[in-house]
Amino acid sequence: MTLVTEKKLYGLDHLRALAIMLVFVFHYGRIFPHPEWTNRVSKFGWTGVDLFFVLSGYLIASQLFLKISEGKSISFREFFIKRFFRIIPAYLVVVAIYFIFPYVHEREALAPLWKYLTFTQNLGLDLRTQGTFSHAWSLCIEEQFYLLLPLTLIALVQFRLLKKAAWLFLLLFILGFAARYFSYVHFVQPNLDSNDIWYFWYKWIYYPTYCRLDGLLAGVGLAAMLQFRPTWKEKLSLYANWFLVAGILVLTAAYFLCMEEESFGASVFGFPLVSLGYGMLVLSAVCPKGLFYKKGSLVTAQLATLSYAIYLSHKFVIHVTQDIVSRLGVAADSNSMFITCIITSLSVALLMNKLVEKPFLALRDVILKRWQQAG
User: Fold this and answer.
1) What is the distance between the alpha carbons of residues 124 and 134, in angstroms, rounded to a whole number?
2) Alpha helices in 136-270 (DSSP H)
3) Which of 56, 203, 312, 337 is the one with CA 20 to 30 A from 9?
4) How many helices (H) and strands (E) does the chain have?
5) Angle CA(34)–CA(39)–CA(43) in degrees, nearest 5?
6) Which three-class secondary structure state does DSSP give residue 361?
7) Residues 137, 91 contacting (CB under 8 angstroms)
8) Of the candidates 16, 47, 241, 70, which has an alpha carbon nearest to the alpha carbon of residue 138?
9) How confident is the model at residue 7 (pLDDT cuts 50, 70, 90)?
């Protein structure tokens, strides 16, 4: 089993599709009028972001680790160009839509523009006054990760400390527990009886980067294990479907642990447990003997392709759709409205993919080709 290959990894498409479906239903059920049945699905939908974190950690680290294992140096410029053209153009389009057209705001006012442009919006985010486009918080964490991971690896290679990297990984994992424990005891627990407890929990536990590294670390750890431990890789592949079962069981345990989101157990231990469960699903998905490794699907492949555009735009699309369609007599909390919002969200995402994402990815390839030829 090779870590990075030209062969299509169908299993990762399935998981990416699952992640965006979870996020969509979660936001639909939490923010907008919705059918009653969506409450049962949206309860655990917030973990879709954690699945995205695990996938990002795995895929990005896999690319960097492959270069290291082949004895090649990591080019930060090449890495930055790839990430910039993949993430930034569509992101800036949505930021512009939110700031130019106040009508699309799904909740309260936006955070200051500079926070979106510097990817620091997740730090100190106040949902009571800055609830619009709040889901950019996860993009902030990912961009911070994209900046620090290659720089860290370059430094570890430069100073010949790569073999000590496991200790850094363990330290960051432990610090995550410590950060959530400290934040809960000092900022959340004293406000448990407050009507705004959700505000304190989101601000101090859910959004800060230092509390939410578990998913990314799980992905990075998985990539490192598969790349640098080839004997482990072959053995683990034999148990791919068992990891699928184990991952589902761990996520079931996490579901019950996180029933009360503001509880101590959910706040301190919930995120790493969710990340462990999704890490097992990713491991199963990338193993040739895994159930979903070779089973492609046009539906999940398309959802995976559109997942980033859907994530960026779905809130304002749902808001606008419900506002317009409800005037035609369709109940905002009906199944018909839910289906309509799915259709409009997919349509806008497809438009963004065709008009923004694909052209800039093509431009990226041209720039990289010219740069490589010049080098």
Assistant:
1) 12
2) 136-158, 165-183, 197-201, 214-228, 230-237, 240-257, 264-265
3) 312
4) 16, 0
5) 130
6) helix
7) no
8) 47
9) low
* Element spanning 189, H or E: none
Residue 311, H or E segment = helix 298-326
d(CA 347, CA 318): 12
Sign, Cα dihedral of 278, 284, 285, 286: positive
Model confidence pLDDT, tens digit, residues 230-249: 888 888 889 999 999 999 99
Q: What angle do CA 92, 96, 101 make, to 5 degrees?
A: 155
Mean pLDDT check: name the lowest of 195-209, 230-244, 245-259.
230-244
Token pair in block for residue 261? 């989101």
Q: Rounded CA gap, 223 and 345, in Å?
A: 32
Please state, in angstroms and rounded to a whole number, the distance separating the CA atoms of residues 145 and 223.
Answer: 15
DSSP assigned state of 6: S
State how far the Cα of 320 lies from the Cα of 141, in Å rounded to an integer: 27
